[in-house]
């Protein structure tokens, strides 16, 4: 038997707890889906992917997935995912800047801003 105070405490956190569990379950489903998709992609490859390449693949195919979730998929640490994702972002930003620099003076192509680097 739970005391009235205990029942009150449970009632206060119940909705939040259920929401957290549901979010975790959905996150686990997304992780399972990502693991299966990455495994299927790896089968088609002629050589193994490096961890950095795996992080880039995950960021390309699951752009809304958090770094801790990607780390779970790849079985690496979240800081490693953050480092490789940062390098990827810096490389893409550099390429985007180079594309804009390559345009003739005064000519701004809308493509330079529309394309995903």
**Strand count:** 0
Determine the N-to-C terminus distance: 60 Å
Assembly level: single chain
Shape: elongated
Main pleated-sheet profile: none
Please tally the helical runs, counting DSSP H or I stretches of 4 or more residues: 5
Using the CA coordinates, give the radius of gyration: 22 Å
Uncertain residue ranges? none
Provide the number of structural domains. 1
The share of residues in helices is: over 70%
Q: What pattern of helices and strands is seen along the backbone?
A: HHHHH
Mean pLDDT: 85
User: What fraction of the residues are assigned to beta strands by DSSP?
Assistant: under 5%
By secondary-structure content and strand pairing, the structural class works out as mainly alpha
Structural commentary:
- With 117 residues, the chain is mostly helical.
- The chain has one domain (4-114).
- The chain is 75% helix and 0% strand.
- The termini are far apart.
Summed up, what is this model?
The chain has 117 residues and is mainly alpha-helical. The protein has helices spanning 4-44, 51-61, 67-74, 78-101, 111-114.
